[in-house]
Amino acid sequence: MAQSSTPVRKARRSLIWLAAIIVALVLGNAASVMFSDGSWTPKLALDLEGGTQIILAPVLGDEEANPSGEQLAQAVSIIRERVNASGVSEAEITTQGGSNIVVSIPGRPDEETLNRIEQSAQLEFRPVLVAGAPGPVAEETPAPEGEAAPDAETPAVDGATDDPAAEAPAEEAPAEEAPAEEEPAPEATPATEPTDGSDLAWVTPELQEAFDSYDCDAADNDNSTAPADQPLITCEADGSVKYILGPVEVSGERISDATSGLQPTAQGGTSNIWAVNIEFDGEGTEQFGEVSTRLVGLEGVRNQFAIVLDGQVISAPRTEGAVTNGQPSITGSFTQETAKTLADQLKFGALPFSFTVQSSELISATLGTAQLASGLLAGFIGLVLVVVYSLVQYRALAVVTIASLVIAGVLTYLIITLLSWREGYRLSLAGVAGLIVAIGITADSFIVYFERIKDELRDGRGLVSAVESGWKRAIRTVIASDTVNFLAAAVLFILAVGNVRGFAFTLGLTTLIDLLVVAMFTHPMLQLLATTRFFNDGHRLSGLDPRALGAVYRGRATFRTPAVVAGKKPVTSAREAERRRTIAERKAEEASLVSASRSSKSDKDS
Amino acid sequence: MANFTEFGNDLYTGKRSINIVGRRKLWYLIAAIAILIAVVGPMLRGGFVFGIEFTGGSEYQVSSPESTSQDLATDAVATVSDVPARVSVVGNESVRVQTEQLSSDESAEVRTALAEAYAVPEADVTESFIGPAWGADITGAALRALAVFLLLAAVVMAIYFRTWKMSVAALVALLHDLVLTAGIYGISGFEVTPAAVIGFLTILGYSLYDTVVVFDKIRENTAEDGTESRRTFAGSVNLAVNQTLVRSINTSVVAILPVASILLIGAILLGAGTLRDIALALFIGILVGTYSTIFLAAPIYAHLREGEDEIRKADARTLAAREKAGDAAPKVATGAARPVTAGER
């Protein structure tokens, strides 16, 4: 068996690698249990485990009507994004009674997730007019300190403003009327009509007075419902600076995306400065373009742009350039963490209106353990049936199938458990059913492979070479079909939302595991088994008995005779074509030659 | 099972050949009728029954009952209507029951029934409307994802198989599977829930997967034929289908056994619910998916390719050569051209 030594060595190496992967997963899991809050079982989703139900009610000013269906739908989808930002959690979000939003989250959500949901943020961009120390003592000069002034590059484009938030004293035409008519402004009636959002004419004596006495530490500073078309006195979120801000220039709904990352250098490399990158939609691009063009020419604090979340300034970057492409980036003293927080706030903060948490209660599972138990029972019965069927079909070879399925099961279990710890993945009943179906797709790889080996045996190859050449053909098919499956999973995972993502995740995972197992376990096992006597001699129960498979010995005689007949074209292609013909065709041909020429009868048994 | 092995041997060697590709008109007709039924049937029945996750519905909250057993609520709702109820316990002291939107009469009855079941005054059972948890935004995103996937899958297959005609055949078969599976939901009146939709998506993956496996064998057979083939193009396709038939049967049996067991156990032990919803979609989908690969995708592919000049010429040559040798040689299995088995001498 000299020639089989290479495959055997390769096979052993694959098996050792596979064992190493499994051991690594087990150790990883053990570490997560010992040093973190990991567990040996995957977390279950809402339908199986229950969770927390949070009811959010909209905060309505006086006389404000209930949110429209459209606004509510928008809010639901933003909250869904917030919830799912922490991973694949299969949360359920719905509306109740036409105005409330009900968020059901599996298990007990961690503090971070709760905060993210409850943060009923309204995000807006306002120009800074005046800044000062947080205390009530009047201080004229703007002295942005600490993280109050991360510098910024703000891109801008010009655009129409039909967004109600930015409508009023926009930089162009409407500037004259809007602020003048609006009485309810916090004691601000500009003497001269401000021409744009940065005009210091907004700062009336009354406003200045209010600003001077404003105390960032006072308890009743609730600015979250401040009118968008009026200046606003408020503080940095950490209370380090207080500001007078101009009216809203760009509303948070105009942000289509926000990400954090390392700032690229001019040379195209990556610096180690953390930046928050914002992307505006078309309208926001125009609005931001105009504003940044204006601000970049201004001096001092008026050059700053305040990002206001629920009435509090979360960041007030300086404008270092006019940004007209709608993709500003903010840099400053960010760490990776603060950059991500700001990006999340920018991305998910743009609710059409504010919410408050009305109730937050534990909720039991809707399906209960009976469903899970019968699901698992059904899966188990199904598996036993699969085992019986493979034993009947593939005899001893079925042992390889079963072992492969077991390995695939172990890998899936370990990875899901790890991911439910790391990524918040949760297994729903639909997910369990998906995993059970994956048995079929995984087993198919083995079936395709075994059938190919049988085909090669039927063609008269020896077992060792049949395993090798059958594998070459089978792995092509397996990769092609798994690629399609994985493509489905990847596309659905990236583009879809909600439960569909959870499903896509499971599908993609099982597809990868299928490839891994067939390449690193099934094939190596067959390579090893092919050298054993039991299989190599084609034992009746091995499932690979050449006699039962009607194998044809393709000796030289069989090969040559038809080749002569077909010999009008280059021999190689004729031979290949010959080889690809079915055995029955060859036999038929042979018989006709024999009867036609009455020449020497082939010594082959036909 | 020796017979099955023999069956596989015969199919592989071509001793036995089931003429599938040649009878394509029959399969087209069957598919057309099936699709017609799947489209008209649900319409006659009154359309699809969508679950509460899609339509929204009624929610009842029973405050401080003596027992928080979920079965009480399930039984109470069952006495009024046969719509499934989703019951959960909220914060240990109240029971939440969600059903589809009920008529106001039924709704009042449900309230009474719940109040009786939990022995609380009727005033402690509140009712409100809940919106769909699976909103239009999820559906929209899922449909977009689906369109992108189909497009990408078509491109990937076209590149891998080096012919767009395989993509077309595979997608037609896929469409056939989805329409039939959806049709059975519409006809049987099973509720379309998120679980069922996820079952659908699984079928989408499975159907394409199955088609790619068989097409890969077709590619192998037809690509290696060259000009020296003694088979017509359709004959080669038919041979590939026959050679993978054993694999198709084995795979679908292995895939369907667990699903069937979920479906049976889900339906018998538990009645309507997530398990039954998803298992039904999968059960039908796997059967139809396997069927359509063999009886629809392969014949369509042969059909599309047969019109090509080169293939037409090659086929004509093959047939002519066969005519010539006709009397001397026993007839050879050719699939489309002549549905005669080779082994009959």
Structural summary, described in words:
The complex is a heterodimer of chains A (606) and B (345). With 606 residues, chain A is an alpha+beta fold. Chain A has four domains: 2-42 and 368-542, Multidrug efflux transporter AcrB transmembrane fold, CATH 1.20.1640.10; 51-119 and 358-363, Alpha-Beta Plaits, CATH 3.30.70.3400; 123-337, no CATH class; 556-597. Chain A is 48% helix and 15% strand. In chain A, strand 6 (232-235) and strand 7 (242-245) form a beta hairpin. In chain A, helix 10 runs parallel beside helix 12 (429-458), helix 11 packs antiparallel against helix 14 (499-530) and helix 12 (429-458) runs parallel beside helix 14 (499-530). In chain A, 49% of the residues are buried. With 345 residues, chain B is α+β, with helices and mostly antiparallel strands. Chain B has two domains: 2-48 and 136-344, Up-down Bundle (Multidrug efflux transporter AcrB transmembrane fold), CATH 1.20.1640; 57-130, Alpha-Beta Plaits (2-Layer Sandwich), CATH 3.30.70. Chain B has helices spanning 2-13, 24-45, 52-55, 70-80, 104-118, 136-161, 164-188, 194-225, 233-243, 245-270, 274-306, 309-325, and strands at residues 49-50, 57-63, 86-90, 94-100, 125-130, 191-192. Chain B has a four-stranded antiparallel β-sheet with strand order 3-4-2-5. Chain B has a two-stranded parallel ribbon with strand order 1-6. In chain B, helix 2 (24-45) runs parallel beside helix 7, helix 4 runs antiparallel to helix 5 and helix 8 (194-225) packs across helix 9 (233-243). Chains A and B meet through helix 3, strand 2, strand 15, helix 10 and helix 12 of A and helix 1, strand 3, strand 5, helix 6 and helix 8 of B.
